[in-house]
Design goal:
disordered N terminus, about 65% helix, elongated, about 210 residues, mainly alpha
């Protein structure tokens, strides 16, 4: 008579390992950033985020919180990356015209990037809309605008001290004009205006701010 084998008991069963993490939080946040930047907050669903990041909803909640928290984290990441791409240009010593040319060129590199087309600026294209009804996002947007104004103002003050600007030049006003130019090319880039035309806009703005001499 053949003796039936006994089913394995809990003591004899091999221990199951915990499910390995199938995602990298930093990579997932970058995917979410790309999606929010392209589609905005309202048009981006949790299903969209799940598909883009490869994470199910519970994993998204566990790693980043709800959709709003993930949006804010994405916007913070965008600002950090944008700041890092320009910080050296603001710090290095160079003529003010050359500095502005490099800043606007760097901005265009950011705004015109994207696998499916130019994505523009996260602040101008999507965060500014959310700032209307969300005080936390509004504070972040205002902080970003003020930070850019202050960085430009510092550039123009240095240029004035070196005699590159007239005695009547107001660094604060010029800084706001420079920031407005950044925002303008961001919007136009999203509308797929050509880089050549955007560069012409930037050059014209520089001529107004520091004079037409090259």
């Amino acid at each position: 008579m053949v003796q039936k084998s006994k089913p394995p008991t809990a003591a004899t069963e091999p221990k199951r390992r915990g499910r390995p993490r199938a995602y990298e939080p930093d990579v997932a946040l970058g995917k979410a950033l790309d999606l929010f930047r392209t589609q905005g907050f309202a048009a981006t669903s949790l299903d969209d985020l799940s598909e883009a990041t490869g994470m199910n909803r519970p994993s998204l909640y566990g790693a980043f919180g709800d959709k709003r928290e993930l949006y804010i984290k994405s916007y913070q990441r965008y600002r950090e990356e944008a700041r890092a791409s320009m910080v050296e240009i603001f710090r290095q010593e160079m003529p003010v015209r050359r500095r502005l040319e490099r800043i606007f060129a760097s901005a265009l590199n950011i705004y015109l990037s994207g696998e499916t087309g130019p994505r523009g600026c996260f602040t101008v294209v999507t965060a500014a809309s959310e700032a209307v009804g969300d005080p936390d996002i509004r504070a972040m947007v205002l902080d970003g605008l003020n930070e850019l104004d202050k960085a430009f103002a510092s550039c123009f003050r240095r240029a004035k001290e070196k005699g590159e600007l007239s005695d009547s030049a107001d660094p604060a006003v010029l800084a706001q004009l420079a920031s407005a130019t950044v925002h303008s090319i961001a919007i136009r880039s999203r509308a797929r205006v050509s880089r050549k035309e955007l560069e012409a806009i930037a050059k014209g703005a520089i001529d107004v701010m520091v004079g037409g001499k090259s």
